[in-house]
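During data preparation, a discrete fold description was generated, and the record follows.
___
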Amino acid sequence: MRLWPLLLLTLLAGCRFTFLPLDPGRPLPPERPFLVARLAPAAEEARLWVRVERLPRPGYLHLRWFREEELLLERALFLEGPGEYRAALPLGEGYHRLVGLWEGAPLFQLDLGTPRLPDPEEEEEEGEG
């Protein structure tokens, strides 16, 4: 008869939480920067404006400037922390694209102009070969 209370006590002991603390605390901040970027055409150049809201650590924002598919310019902008940053890029005729990379991962792509549509006759010639 005295075995029942001991068995009941053993079963109830298994029903309690086995980890502490019950509140895991605040999550870690994201490691990815948060920024807002705008690209506007000016007389002979395109002006880039970047507002950094959150930056996990200082580092370089790599900028790749393209005309159509051709890489025209690569530049690095050092970001120290939250704030505003500006850059000027050479602007010519046609469609331009700016890609911003942080630690090798793309953060944004900004476009100026309209991309050329592929020539359907050119594509047919490539597909026949």
